[in-house]
Design brief:
By secondary structure, the protein is of the alpha/beta class. It is built from 13 helices and 17 strands. The structure holds 1,4-dihydronicotinamide adenine dinucleotide (NAI). The site of 1,4-dihydronicotinamide adenine dinucleotide has 32 residues, from helix 5 and helix 7.
């Protein structure tokens, strides 16, 4: 039978926050009146997880907790899941959708952290600091101005002019760099940045090329041998986007030949699964590379922001049903609920259900003040604001509609 809930008192809504999610998340819940909060510093073993989820309404995880279809069947009251990180592939998204559970994440909370790291790398690599520092650690004194440059006036080529790319452009202009970008979508130029015209033109004319694209078929090995050949002699290459974007063997050859004068790589085709595993890469032999263990977005500030961003999304969904920016659910942005009752109805995406829902409202004489509908391939989400006097009977009838997954009455 479909899972039905009416508005619960906030203190009765159980929130489970695992894996040491930053306390900023708990603060957001408490400030909004939620007090039944279970926290754990690590991921839990399966049996404990099942026990804790048996009466949980909201679940917050980071990347270690695997939320499988089987696990979800042990969480009958679960309303939504928050991934307090960027990725969501630790959750079986289809299974969550089919159980009427929206999943939220924080895709942009660490944008600034990545931008700052890249900015630092641009300065250090243009000055040749990584190589000089590595030599000094070995006792070598390389006092020289050869291949050492200021950032001022240099051309920065940004590939992927999205959230991170645009921020880097603004910060780099503050240093006096001239910024150009290449993006497959038409993007608004910020500051004095200008479109490069094509990827090839960007490669041929930039002193520093930095990648901020998603992982797609098109971006797979985008920086390959042919691309290195088109690169300006002695340019610097930075990748803090995805490990598939730069062909490491091609970069290795370009560093070897001196075509590339330095590189900073934060993401790799294969990365160690834990801090105990050795990091293997041909690039380790080059002093003029900055190799970082996928920490572009890993700062205290980003953790705080992630805690706030995801918990705010969960609180909003709990309070008024908004699913905006959910990764698996039809996105419905809803106004605040004032002096109305709101019925949120989640159903399998089958033809005729909206008509049946509205039949219930007309049969029960309910006056609809607003209705919102979105569907995706698997589910439909219909939110109806109605006159509060008649909400109980309508809500009762809605549960009988075939195809209903979940419904909530909010007031
Ligand atoms: P975004 O989605 O805001 O921007 C990506 C941009 O790339 C978009 O403007 C898009 O149109 C463009 N793009 C897509 N395909 C392209 C192509 N073939 N050629 C040129 N442009 C293309 O993403 P955001 O937030 O700026 O992130 C960028 C990358 O950084 C993502 O891959 C993300 O996973 C990664 N990232 C890495 C972190 C780290 O720790 N190193 C932390 C955060 C994000």
């Amino acid at each position: 039978m479909a899972n039905q809930t009416t508005s619960l008192a906030k203190e009765n809504i159980k929130i489970v926050l695992l894996e040491g999610i930053h306390p900023s998340a708990e603060e957001v819940f408490r400030e909004d009146g939620y007090s039944n909060i279970f926290t754990a510093p690590k991921s839990l073993p399966q049996d404990e997880l099942k026990e804790v989820l048996a009466d949980a309404n909201f679940l917050g995880i980071r990347s270690r907790t695997q939320v499988t279809k089987e696990l979800l069947s042990f969480a009958p009251k679960l309303s939504a899941i928050g991934c307090f990180c960027i990725g969501t592939n630790q959750v079986d998204l289809d299974a969550a959708t089919q159980r009427g559970i929206p999943v939220f994440n924080a895709p942009f909370a660490n944008t600034r952290s990545v931008a700052e790291l890249v900015l630092a790398e641009i300065i250090l690599l243009l000055r040749g600091v990584p190589a000089k520092s590595a030599a000094a650690h070995r006792g070598e004194w390389n006092k020289s101005a050869i291949n050492s440059f200021e950032t001022r006036g240099k051309i920065l080529g940004i590939v992927g002019y999205g959230h991170i790319g645009t921020q880097i452009g603004i910060l780099a202009e503050g240093l006096g760099m001239r910024v150009q970008f290449f993006d497959i979508e038409k993007q608004l130029s910020l500051g004095n940045a200008r479109p490069a015209g094509s990827f090839e033109k960007l490669l041929a004319t930039s002193d520093v090329v930095t990648f901020h694209v998603p992982e797609t078929e098109q971006t797979q090995n985008m920086m390959n041998q042919a691309a290195f050949e088109q690169l300006k002699e002695g340019a610097i290459v930075i990748n803090a986007s995805r490990g598939t974007v730069v062909d490491i063997d091609a970069l290795d050859s370009a560093l070897e030949s001196g075509k590339v004068n330095g590189a900073a790589i934060d993401v790799f085709p294969t990365e160690p699964k834990s801090n105990q595993e050795e990091f293997i890469s041909p690039l380790r032999r080059f002093d003029n590379t900055i190799l970082t263990p996928h920490i572009g977005g890993s700062t205290k500030e980003a953790q705080v922001n992630i805690g706030i961003e995801v918990s705010e999304k969960l609180v909003k969904y709990s309070n008024n049903g908004t699913t905006l920016s959910s990764v698996n659910f039809p996105e419905v942005g809803l106004p605040e609920l004032i002096k109305k009752h709101r019925i949120c109805h989640i159903h399998h995406n089958e033809p005729g259900i909206l008509a049946k829902i509205n039949d219930v409202f007309s049969a029960t004489g309910v006056n609809i003040s607003a209705q919102y509908l979105q569907t995706n391939q698997l589910v439909g989400y219909v939110v109806t604001d109605i006159d509060h006097k008649s909400s109980d009977s309508a809500f009762g009838s809605l549960r009988k509609i075939e195809g209903t997954i979940k419904s909530r009455l909010l007031y």
